[in-house]
Design brief:
The protein has about 550 residues and is of the alpha/beta class. It has three domains: about 25-130 and about 255-435, 3-Layer(aba) Sandwich (Rossmann fold); about 135-250, Domain 2, N(10)-formyltetrahydrofolate synthetase; about 450-530, Formyltetrahydrofolate synthetase, domain 3 (Roll). About 35% of the residues lie in helices and about 20% in strands. Strand 5 (about 115) and strand 6 form a beta hairpin. The two termini are about 25 Å apart.
Length: about 550
């Protein structure tokens, strides 16, 4: 029996083409005004070229989401890459749009985000590590604002900032629980200004969210200026623009804001840009990247983080609302392994056929299908095939989807690349050609903030009740009084369940959603609603991926996945 190659072994043998040839496939000319090479296989598209695309017709937008995540894995990114390769294989002009991986998960538990098997984007090592330095630029811009806040206080505090009401933490692109709470200014010339601060991970930064929700540099600068960094001693907001921070921060992001282009193993174009958390922020790649791809191709495959209850809901209610986007169809990725876990099987027992557990776990897929239909969109189920899946188990899902009146496709892109996703690609083309119903948001801008939260909790999570302290209710009222009532809400909760209890698999109903905190993202223009025990700075697991990542004798990276 042949040894199964690791993702990095497969990626290392990729026959990559010069990036100019990849760009030529989507009609980006080989001119300095169109793109800037970042080495041989990566490029950034220039705004001078993007400005010329505005009058072009948009292609079809395909959203890839998934069932509720489990340790068994679902393969949303892998399916996105495989589908893009599949569409190109059947003669369609398609681009995949992904988020950039964060170093925290790459060295932690989740690993990278470049796909897997024979459905990967390359160069895998660069993409999963420093890539084009975008995240470092975002980290620097964020921390510049932090430095300017403390510097302003040190030199007299003309804005009368209340140092106990500074809401702007520092960030680092790493999982490091020790930095969640820190004491600063404990010694030295600034010891008179002691205060408690802390770090979030870069992908949870509001600068990252703004980066991905901006239409251009001017819009980026305006949104950065509107960030609420603190409150003064009279209780009024202090903005980044009050500190004159929006200018230098935008300068730091000037190059990063241009979308990055790479390629798949099959030399098809991939735009990889931005990467906000899906449980803290909206979890989608940048608007600039998505809109660029829509102008350059007939089909754009993009993903939203975690399960459909978090990622797809925010993609539709936040990103599409802000960008004026309308998806043509939604792919819900499922694996038989994950569905069996939702049916009560332990991870160690997933190799065995278990029809009863699979049928029991299908309630999770059903909930996601029904939720997507609430937006007026047509879902299609993609079964991400694993070697030990049995014919009986696959038939169970096909029969279930037939009863639900949704298309389904068994996909083998992990093992076969684009060839294994051509059936899915053909079905998606048919869906995109059909006359579609009207895409609609789950709620209107005019709805009260509390009612928006309640609607998501009851409609998407099937909660019977949401609870919040009097202080949180009052804070929502203050947000509305200050002119933020029209903003969408961004629910931050565990990705492992429809509830706030990660242990509740399947499709729990009649549970309670406790709201711990509400935060104003006045720059990104949404309200973050923190539920349960979710963290904005993850920690490393007991055995992190970092333990096995190293350079071999050839100087090649090993252990990255």
């Amino acid at each position: 029996m042949n040894k199964i190659k690791s993702d990095i072994e497969i990626a290392r043998k990729a026959k990559m083409k010069p990036i100019a040839k990849i760009l030529k496939k989507i009609n980006v000319p080989d001119k300095s005004s169109a793109f800037s090479p970042m080495g041989r296989h990566i490029a950034k598209i220039n705004f001078e070229f993007l400005d010329k695309l505005k009058r072009k017709k948009d292609g079809n937008l395909i959203l890839v989401t998934a069932i509720t995540p489990t340790p068994a894995g679902e393969g949303k990114t892998t399916t996105s890459v495989g589908l893009n390769d599949g569409l190109n294989r059947i003669g369609k002009k398609s681009i995949v749009c992904l988020r950039e991986p964060s170093l925290g998960p790459s060295f932690g538990m989740k690993g990278g985000a470049a796909g897997g098997g024979y459905a990967q984007v390359v160069p895998m090592e660069q993409i999963n590590l420093h890539f084009t330095g975008d995240f470092h630029a975002i980290t620097s811009a964020h921390n510049l604002l932090s430095a300017m806040i403390d510097n302003h206080i040190y030199w007299g505090n003309n804005l009368n900032i209340d140092d106990k009401r500074i809401v702007w933490k520092r960030v680092i692109d790493m999982n490091d629980r020790a930095l969640r709470f820190i004491d600063i200014n404990t010694n030295g010339v600034a010891k008179s200004f002691k205060r408690i601060d802390g770090f979030d991970i870069t992908v949870a930064s509001e600068v990252m969210a703004i980066f991905c929700l901006s239409n251009d540099l001017k819009d980026l600068e305006k949104k950065i200026g509107n960030i609420t960094v603190a409150y003064n001693k009279e209780g009024k907001q202090v903005f980044a623009k009050d500190l004159k921070a929006e200018g230098p921060m935008t300068v730091l992001l000037k190059e990063a804001i241009r979308p990055n282009v790479t390629q798949s193993l099959e030399n098809n174009p991939a735009i990889i840009h931005g990467g906000p958390f899906a449980n803290i922020a909206h979890g989608c790649n940048s608007i600039i990247a998505t809109k660029t791809a829509l102008k350059l191709s007939d089909y754009v495959v993009t993903e939203a983080g975690f399960g459909a209850d978090l990622g797809a809901e925010k993609f539709l209610n936040i990103k599409c609302r802000k960008a004026g986007l309308s998806p043509s169809c939604v792919v819900i990725v499922a694996t038989i392994r994950a569905l069996k876990m939702h049916g009560g099987v332990e991870k160690k027992d997933l190799k065995k056929e278990n029809i009863n557990a699979l049928k029991k776990g299908l309630v999770n897929l059903e909930r996601h299908i029904l939720n997507i239909k609430k937006f007026g969109l047509e879902p299609i189920v993609a079964i991400n095939h694993f070697i030990l899946d049995t014919k009986k188990e696959i038939k169970v899902i096909f029969d279930f989807c037939k009863k639900m009146n949704v298309e389904v496709s068994e996909c083998k892109h992990w093992a076969e690349g684009g060839k294994g996703a051509t059936n899915l690609a053909k079905k998606i083309v048919k869906i995109c050609k059909k006359k579609r119903g009207k895409f609609n948001f789950l709620y209107k801008n005019t709805l009260k903030l509390w009612n928006k939260i309640e609607l998501i909790a009851k409609e998407i999570y099937k909660a019977s009740n949401i609870t919040a302290s009097r202080e949180i209710i009052e804070q929502l009222k203050i947000f509305e009084d200050n002119g933020y009532g029209h903003l969408p809400v961004c629910i931050a909760k565990t990705q492992y369940s429809f509830s706030t209890d990660p242990k509740l698999k399947g499709a729990p109903s009649n549970h309670e959603i406790p709201i711990r905190e509400v935060r104003l993202s006045s720059g990104a223009e949404f309200i973050v609603v923190v539920c349960g025990s979710i963290m904005t700075m993850p920690g490393l697991p007991k055995v992190p991926a970092a333990d096995t990542i190293r350079l071999n004798k050839k100087g090649e990276t090993e252990g990255l996945f």
